[in-house]
Amino acid sequence: MSKDIASAKGKLGILLPGMGAVATTVIAGTLAVNKGISKPIGSTTQMGTIRLGKRTDNNTPLIKDFIPLADIKNIVFGGWDIFDVNMYESAQNAGVLDRYLLEQLKPELEAIRPMKAVFDNKYVTKLNGTHIKKANNKFELAEALRQDIRDFKAKNNCDRLVMVWTASTEIYIEQTKVHQTIEALEEGMKNNDPNIPSSMLYAYAAIKEGIPYANGAPNLSADIPALVKLAKENKVPICGKDFKTGQTLMKTILAPGLKVRSLGVAGWFSTNILGNRDGEVLDDPASFKTKEVSKLSVLDSIFEPEKNPDLYKDLYHKVRIDYYPPHGDNKEGWDNLDIFGWLGYKMQIKVDFLCRDSILAAPLVLDLAIFLDLAKRAEMCGVQEWLSFFFKSPQTIKPELLPIHDIFQQEMKLKNTLRHLKGEELITHLGLDYED
């Protein structure tokens, strides 16, 4: 039986805290697609397909034709940034998209300006902004964000809203008492508790306003008991953390293949160089630690060394990120794998992924916004594990659960969730019938 899903008609507003390279790339890209200039390549909601029934049925529609999703022609963008420049200027500064494309989109991009951001340099030490809200305490700042949300919705005649964090990685913060209950969190906000970073204020504001929230950075953000509980109480879907784009995407593709063939891995060395704002932020050791924890967790979850000690018990995993301005947004992720096979004989795999950070991240922002809107309309709330497909460090429905990192398992969970919502038979590939 299919689940009741509210209509996707009307305008969907996508609010983006941090309107730099990633945000301008998804905004410009959506405009380009809507104008017929380009295709939404990399977007699961726009180009992904889903198999229904048996293989012999030959029934594989586009996902967007199978389940009611927001039409990207009915999307309006807004957000906040620490610099007061319109999206045309911001896109030029980011240097991701070529000038010829931007000129075709100039009027629409110039019309989008960011609201003043909530920002504190102590959480992102490499950046200093000038377009920043002022208030007596963090609670007042969160209330100001809530007012921004209401004003944006009214001004743009939006029927629904979604928020996706596209700003920088904050310094590493661990959970404390202030994160355990909403009462403690709100009291901490009023007392300017240092364990409540800016991203947490955005997450709080979104959830209080009943707006789905996705966290595209490894920040703690909404991944705390207080906000997870609040999301359930307010019937708000949330998900995170950290967009799975370049090097980690490669890991979650390669590692499952090595595991299923029972090949051992002695070492996996990963290094990245990039020169965009994200690279500059990660040049700070405190911000890098937040990213490092996110990236390091992937292999343990996939290889399960405690269950496969002969193959992965002594795996040495090292991750480095270096700021290299000449590369700009063109990130280079280099991996060296020392593997071993039959009788312990050693082999190597080397991967050099010359990727474009924001080009890989942009369709994820769009997909997360559209899928979270679907979740909200289907009355799904709390942590949305079925959206782990898009993240390096996915939130789980219970903190004691380890996240699933295998991208193929993640894809199965995502598509089976969509099948379930429409009352279609789940596909597990376990059937004995050759037609399964």
Tell me what the structure shows.
With 436 residues, the chain is of the alpha/beta class. It has 2 domains: 12-243 and 359-421, NAD(P)-binding Rossmann-like Domain (Rossmann fold), CATH 3.40.50.720; 247-356, Dihydrodipicolinate Reductase, domain 2 (2-Layer Sandwich). 38% of the residues lie in helices and 16% in strands. The protein has helices at 21-34, 44-47, 63-66, 87-94, 99-104, 106-110, 138-155, 182-190, 198-208, 225-233, 247-260, 277-281, 285-303, 309-312, 357-377, 407-421; strands at residues 12-17, 75-81, 115-116, 160-165, 213-215, 237-240, 264-274, 316-323, 330-340, 346-356, 382-383. It has a 7-stranded parallel beta sheet, sandwiched between helices. A 4-stranded mixed beta sheet has the order 8-7-9-10. The radius of gyration is 22 Å and the shape is globular. The model has no long low-confidence stretch (mean pLDDT 94).
Distance between the termini: 20 Å
Provide the CATH architecture of the largest domain.
Answer: 3-Layer(aba) Sandwich
The biggest beta sheet is recorded as:
7 strands, parallel
What does the overall shape look like?
A: globular
Number of helices: 16
What's the alpha carbon Rg, rounded to whole Å?
A: 22 Å
In the CATH hierarchy, what is the superfamily of the largest domain? NAD(P)-binding Rossmann-like Domain
Number of domains: 2
Spatially, the strands of the biggest sheet line up as: 3-2-1-4-5-6-11
> For the record, what CATH class of the largest domain applies?
Alpha Beta
Beta-strand residue fraction: 15-25%
